[in-house]
Design goal:
- Helix content is 14%, strand content 23%.
- With 266 residues, it is of the alpha+beta class.
- It has a domain at 202-262.
- The protein has a four-stranded mixed beta sheet, with no helix packed on it.
- A hairpin with a 4-residue loop joins β8 (176-179) and β9.
- The longest helix is centred in the N-terminal third of the chain and has 24 residues, at 3-26.
- The termini are far apart.
């Protein structure tokens, strides 16, 4: 071997040796032998006269769960035991079980997710075009929404029903009233039947005022007994409605036992 070949071989060996040493140190950085022994749990223990962690001798095995510390908080070569989880309740949790402090599953289920759905949760949407509704703010069409169980899916929204646009500017004839749903005048409902009044009373429907409802209200009233007695003694066919209270106004008989009165108030 000549001089040039020997120098090349020595340089190649030195490079390989350096790589081996660097790799060995890099693979064992988590070993407590290569960590600063430092002090106990309190970083200022050495300043306060506390114990100082002694250097470890020998080689520590690799511990996947980390190393145990002694009573002074100093690293040891003892490995932390692996976490052992106990049995889990025989329940199905769609979104997994709630873990405990050790990371083991418990008998409690994680709540359903909330918030907006991601594109991956809904998948491809239906081939339906979206459109802006006449209200100028609602968009009708497919939308990905999350339901109460936390699952995402496509929903087809529609435009809201527009509010009625008709305005009551018409004066309906007598016997009709304005219907805002149909936007026109419609006949009043038929008057109610006779009131279930007691014997000797009359069913009185007041069509006067003030501010009566449609149809007019009805109530049972007792006519003046003296007036009724005079009618019977006179032998004249007169309606008992004329014997009602003067405040009822002019009253006429509308049916047997029923009277329609107008007190003249408008």
């Amino acid at each position: 071997m000549n001089g040039a070949s020997r120098r090349l071989y020595l340089n190649h060996s030195a490079i390989l040796g350096g790589l081996v040493i660097f790799t060995a140190l890099s693979c064992d950085l988590n070993n407590p032998l290569h960590q600063d022994a430092g002090t106990s749990k309190d970083a200022g223990a050495a300043q306060d006269g506390g114990p100082t962690c002694p250097p470890l001798g020998g080689a520590c095995q690799m511990c996947p769960n980390g190393y145990l510390s002694d009573d002074n908080g100093c690293a040891t070569c003892k490995c932390k035991p692996p976490t052992t989880c106990g049995p889990v309740c025989d329940i199905f949790c769609a979104y997994g079980n709630v873990p405990d402090a050790q990371g083991c599953p418990t008998c409690a289920c994680n709540p359903p997710p909330t918030g907006a759905c991601s594109p991956s949760e809904c998948g491809p949407g239906p081939a339906i075009a979206s459109q802006l509704c006449p209200d100028g703010k609602t968009v009708a069409g497919p939308i990905c929404l999350r339901d109460q169980t936390g699952a995402c899916g496509w929903r087809i929204t529609t435009c809201p029903t527009p509010p009625p646009t008709c305005v009551d500017t018409v004066l309906c004839i007598q016997g009709d009233h304005w219907d805002s749903t149909l936007c026109q005048c419609v006949p009043n409902p038929p008057p109610p039947g006779p009131c279930p009044c007691a014997t000797g009373q009359l069913c009185v429907t007041q069509i006067g005022g003030p501010a009566i409802s449609v149809p007019p209200p009805s109530q049972c009233e007792a006519p003046d007994p003296t007036c009724i007695q005079k009618i019977k003694m006179g032998g004249v066919a007169v309606s008992p409605c004329v014997c009602l209270a003067p405040s009822d106004g002019v009253c006429t008989q509308s049916a047997a036992g029923s009277c329609t009165c107008d007190n003249g108030i408008r």
